[in-house]
Amino acid sequence: ARIQVDGKPLIKEAPVKTREIGEVESDLRFSDRAQSTLSKALTKAKLKFIAITPMNVVFDLMAKAKPGKGGVFNVYKKTMDLAHNKYVAHRQSIMRPMRELIVKAGIDNASLERILVWATLEQDGGRQKILASPEFTEAGVERFLKKGLSEHEQTTLDAMRVEFEKLKPQLIEVLKNVYNKDF
Fold first, then answer.
1. How far is CA 2 from CA 6, 67, 71, 95, 130, in A?
2. Which of 151, 145, 47 is nearest to 107 (CA)?
3. Residue 1 burial class via C-beta count within 10 angstroms: exposed 0-12, middle 13-18, buried 19 and up
4. Rounded distance, CA 10 to CA 75, Å?
5. For residue 120, what are the CA distances in angstroms to 24, 82, 83, 87, 137?
6. In the chain, pLDDT over 70 holds for what percent of residues?
7. Residue 118 and residue 73 in contact, taking contact as beta carbons nearer than 8 Å
8. Which helix (H) or strand (E) holds 33?
């Protein structure tokens, strides 16, 4: 009920003179047809703008109340903000030790790429994914597999796997609830 009071429509369509039943559109005045066409185009543009706008901004646009107040904020924006803050804190708790490990091991961008490619090659269909990129060749992949990862790279990959396993229950839940897929 508060949303109905505190909310407002995102798009206000201008009244347009429409044709009567049995009236041909060409019977309308040119200015009425032009206004109708312009109004439809503007409405379509506004809908596309809303579609690409982040949801927190859309919620702000929907609210009549001051920012941080009202039903739209309490039901939608506040809930999303709390969930996002929880996500950021969780992500930082995982990323901080990984960053420290990467810096301590002296892992650079080239090493991170080797780690990523190695992990991808170990997955089902990973070789095909790597070879689908124009940057990599079959011969290059074979040379890479023979050489392998350095000790520091393998240690970093192993630590990343440990952290990933901690996330796995959450990923399984999201895949099931959001995408209706099994992990």
1. 6, 15, 5, 39, 52
2. 151
3. exposed
4. 17
5. 62, 34, 30, 25, 15
6. 80
7. no
8. helix 30-52
**Could you read off the pLDDT of 79-129 as tens digits, one per residue?**
777 888 888 888 888 889 889 989 988 899 999 999 999 999 999 999 999
* Mean pLDDT across 142-161: 94
CB 16 within 8 A of CB 82: no
DSSP secondary structure code for residue 57 in this structure: H
Residue found under tokens 């060749």: 137
Please say whether the beta carbons of 33 and 92 come within 8 A: no
Q: In which residue are the tokens 């109004």 written? A: 39
| pTM of the predicted structure, to 2 decimals | 0.54
Bridge partners (DSSP) listed for residue 63:
7
Other beta carbons within 10 angstroms of residue 169's beta carbon come to: 10
- On whether the CB atoms of residues 183 and 171 are closer than 8 A, the answer is yes
